[in-house]
Amino acid sequence: MSTKLTKNNGREGRWSASSKLAAMLIAPSLLVMGMIILYPLIHAVWLSFFNYKLTRPDDIAFTLTKNYLRMVQDETFWLAVKNTLIFTLFTVIISLVLGMIMAIAIDQLPKRFSGLRGFILVPWVVPGIVVGYLFMYMFDVEVGVVNFILQKFQIIQEFLPWLMNDKLSMIAIIIAHIWNQTPFYMLMFSAGLMAIPEDVKEAAYVEGASRWQEFWHITFPYLKGIVAITSLLMVIRNFNNFPIIFTMTGGGPVYSTTTSVIYIYRLAFEQYEMGYASAVGAVWVIVLLIVSIFYIKALQKDF
Amino acid sequence: MIKRGFSLIWSFILAIVLGVTLVWTLFPIYWMISTSFKTNMDVFKMPLDLWPKEFTIQSYINLITNDITPIGKFFINSVITSLGTVLIAVILATFAGYALSRLNFKYRKSILMGILTTQMFPLVVLLIPLYILYVKTNLLNTYTGLILAFTSFTLPFGIWMIKGFVDSVPVEIEEAAMVDGCTRFQSMRLVVFPLIIPGVVATGVFAFLDAWNNLLFPLTLINEVAMKTLPPGMILAFGGEFKHDWSGMMAASVIVSIPVIVIFIVIQRYLVQGLTGGAVKG
Amino acid sequence: MAGLQLKGITKKFDDVIAVAKTDLEINDGEFLVLVGPSGCGKSTTLRMIAGLEKPTDGEIFIGDKDVTYLEPKDRDIGMVFQSYALYPHKNVYDNIAFGLLIRKFPKEDIKKRVLEAAEMLEITDYLDRYPKQLSGGQRQRVALARAIARHAQVFLMDEPLSNLDAKLRVQTRAEIIKLHQRLKTTFIYVTHDQTEAMTMGTRIVVMKNGIIQQIGSPTKIYNNPSNVFVAGFVGSPPMNLIQGKLVKDKEGFSFISTNISIPLSLDSASLAENKDVILGIRPESLIVTDVNAKDICFTCQVEVVEHIGAEAIIHTKIDNGEKVTLKVSGYNTLPKFGEVIGAKFDLGSIHIFDKDTELCLVSLNIK
Fold first, then answer.
1. H-only helix segments in C90-135
2. CB-CB under 8 Å, B128 with A44
3. Residues contacting C144, CB < 8 A, separation 6+
4. 3-class DSSP state for residue A282?
5. How many Å from the N-terminal Cα to the C-terminal Cα in chain C?
6. Cis peptide bond prior to B47, omega within 30° of 0
């Protein structure tokens, strides 16, 4: 009996040794992330139940529904949601198609040109704030090179006020993001293309498949998983995108380029509506969690 | 494999696609650099010159000598906080990534998924409570505060990346090391670590890019001018009345971009490897 | 050098039993082979000895020392992995030296031992190369050298030859045997290949579904398989197993199947009238004879004839549809496809297995 006991103790000890080591190795990461992400997130949800304006510190009161009811009737909130969807939809779809074309084009080139990929990737690492200022400058109504080129090729007669017109501003912002993000799609698709086994392509070649058939029946099915994962990831990223829009238009003119995150920022740091901003934020977190579930599902399916 | 022969039309289409791609990608960069060497007179003159008529580095001199928006100080702040983030993120991600790949323990899967999910949260939502927290803990206007914030947002990606790399190291190699006399920690340090260096480098680079490019954290968590990093520094310098100093704005853009572009070009081989080696998953 | 003892070793993965309560004694200096189909628990047993897997129950002794709860590093073992598991970032010298370095051997000592091991395996010329610059066979030798450089008490080998091509495998097999004779240490060797087991082991442990089926010398296992599984697993081509019944008459028991009747001329307490049994006979114990010959055992129809040089293997079908294989000299005139031939017993033994328990009831030499 006593031997049995010591035996079990020995085993328990071993198990906890492995767990103890794991805990030791992971704890620092979880601690930092808990402090900077998890705790503030919970606090934000808490704040969303308060009537809390920085401008009126004497008037802080708990209210379960006020902020959320206000949101339902807040036209600007719904406009921001609409803007986010339009912005994300166009940015993701166009970048995806362009990225795919670039990846395939580069894949056709002999190996010694693969350094080209490095150059094409540059826009992706340019800081968002630089992208924002650069495109603000290029889309400027007076000195913008975009107007200059379009006029030179006689596509437009007069210089367009890209960033001051509530319809054109969204287009300008989407273009800036496409420039910034297309390389990332290209990189992901290039990685995917490289992962296609040579013998599968050779088999298709031997069986007499045309280039188009090869793409449609071999390449595309292989890339499907990466397309799904990359698009979902980029939907999430664009739902959260901040610096480029913030520097280019600040969400204006009026609210025409205000996406949800920009709206939250403006509420919190321009109007000091801390409680209401937190409520909008909490709702937005839920939206993102739902998209994330799809993303994680796609990840688990493909890897 | 035998590359298929190219038909003339196909080659032509390919050439056009690549040509357009290159112009589309590189022209804005070129325009940024070329404007930064123009005088503001030139910038405002129509028709525009593709090449600066009067080549000048005046904009750069103005930036450096300006005391109200000390771009040199911003640059140093950016370097310190970014390198600090790289150091801490790489160490933490290596430990956590190794544990999540190799050790079997309760909640391993939940922790992995939880880490992945944090990547999806809009940073903006966290700013208000974080600001309150930083005021309480005296982290406002400190390097430590910024480094912690940057680290937490680059860690999820880093952990997944390192985990992917450790996954690709065969378990037998570590078992061989343990039979050879290594403890867990020794096998991690002497056998696994040298084999995942590409992943560690990639993690470090992404951490650097994330920290260097981050605007929101320093915008809200730093309100002393002397502590600002480059992105909020640029907003300070070119928001409002200086909005039309295009040449200066582009010169600042060049200064902000150069470190990341140089680092990126030097290590891009590792990055592609990193992405194919497991980071696709994160 | 030391012997080993496994006492009631059990391993469960969740609810799956990989190794059922197993007792095994391994003598000092012996070459023990664990053999069985994949998933039989042989690798798990080896890994528990190595300390890479914790037993769910039971104890392991190396020499007199209870090592059940010790880390691999504290067990004084050397191990060769199926994938070799060389350190890709270290050259051959450092691969071999690593274990000594970790154990803080003096530098001179390390050098002496590395060179000694390298010489024994004839890899002295590659010491500064990296694993990826070596061929499969060379990597295999490095893995062996790494295992022996430390002069461990026990060497464990997990299918070390399965990644080599056929010719190299035979060659390396002989070298491992030589290595064992030279080192005189305990070797524990895991394989799924019965030929390897038969040629290398001084003792063989046949396993299936986590349970030891038989332990014994190669000859014992070959000549006296304890059950149907061992009979069918060892030997190439495998033993013929024919289902039938026992009938008793004055002369003793006879084996009866559809058109086969074999007098066993013996009486044994383990046999019973009308018992369902399986008769086992090795292919080389059968020879081809004329259909009308007097001493014929049964007739069968030829399906395939494989001529492999000195030997020929004849695959046939008997009347009840069961397959019977004959292994004959390749210098004979061989029957053709479809031909009906007679088969009679030659040298060797006949084994009678209980159909229900599959255990061997009796083995008798053919007169």
1. 92-102, 107-120
2. yes
3. C80, C121, C160, C176, C179
4. helix
5. 45
6. yes
Between C204 and A113, the higher pLDDT residue: C204
Residue among A166, A168, A159 at smallest CA distance from A141: A159
3-state secondary structure of C246: strand
Q: Which residue of C has its CA nearest to B191?
A: C87
How far does the CA of residue C48 sit from the closest CA of chain A (Å)? 14
Burial of B12 (0-12, 13-18, 19+ CB in 10 A): exposed
Grouping H, G, I as helix, E, B as strand and the rest as coil, residue C109 is helix
Same structural domain, B121 and B29: no
Q: What pLDDT digit, counting tens, does each position of A3-59 carry?
A: 333 333 334 334 456 778 888 899 999 999 999 999 999 988 888 888 877 777 777
Residues in chain B closer than 8 A to A28 (CB atoms): 92, 95-96
**What value of ipTM does the predicted structure carry?**
0.86
**DSSP tag of C88:** T
Task: Specify whether B198 is located in the same domain as B99.
Answer: yes
Is the Cβ pair B194, C146 closer than 8 Å?
A: no
Which candidate, B227, B55, B69, places its Cα nearest to that of B141?
Answer: B227
What band does C42 get if pLDDT is binned at 50, 70 and 90? very high
User: Which segments of chain B have a pLDDT < 50?
Assistant: 1-2, 277-282
**Residue B23 sits in the same domain as residue B93:** no
Question: Are B34 and B150 contained in the same domain?
Answer: no
What residues of chain B lie within 8 A of the CB of A143, using their CB?
Answer: 43-44, 46, 48, 246
Q: Which chains touch A (3 or more CB pairs under 8 A)?
A: B, C
Is B282 part of a structural domain of the chain?
no
Neighboring chain A residues of B174 at a CB cutoff of 8 Å: none
Q: Are residues B36 and B151 in the same domain?
A: no
Same domain, B151 and B36: no
Q: Quick one: A68-302 is in which CATH superfamily?
A: MetI-like (1.10.3720.10)
Peptide bond into C238 cis (omega under 30): no
Domain residue ranges of chain A, discontinuous segments joined by +: 2-47, 68-302
Separation between Cα atoms, residue B241 and residue C138, nearest integer Å: 73
**What is the C-alpha separation between B173 and B179, in angstroms, rounded?**
10
Q: Are residues B26 and B127 in the same domain?
A: no
Report the residue of chain B nearest A299, measured CA to CA: B281
Instruction: Give the pLDDT confidence score for residue B271 in this predicted structure.
Output: 63
**Quick check: C236 and C366 in contact, CB under 8 A?**
no
Residue C214 has pLDDT above 90, yes or no: yes
Count: domains in chain B: 2
The CA-to-CA distance between both ends of chain B, in Å, stands at: 31
Residues of chain C neighbouring B186 (CB-CB closer than 8 A): 102
**Are residue B111 and residue B176 in the same domain, yes or no?**
yes
The distance of A202 to chain C (nearest Cα, Å) reads: 27
What number of other Cβ atoms are within 10 A of residue C88's Cβ?
Answer: 15
Q: Do B175 and C73 touch (CB under 8 A)?
A: no
Residue span of the structural domain in which B267 resides: 68-277
**pLDDT tens-digit map of A191-206:** 888 777 778 777 877 8
Separation between Cα atoms, residue B114 and residue A26, nearest integer Å: 13
The b/e string for A233-270 (b: 16+ C-beta within 10 A; e otherwise) is bbbbbbbbbbbbbbbbbbbbeebbbbbbbbbbbbbbbe
Question: A-B interface: how many C-beta pairs under 8 angstroms?
Answer: 270
Q: Which positions 63-92 of C are in contact with A (Cβ < 8 Å)? A: 68-69
For residue B254, is it within any domain? yes
> Which chain B residues have any C-beta within 8 angstroms of a chain C C-beta?
170, 172-173, 175-183, 186, 190-191, 194-195
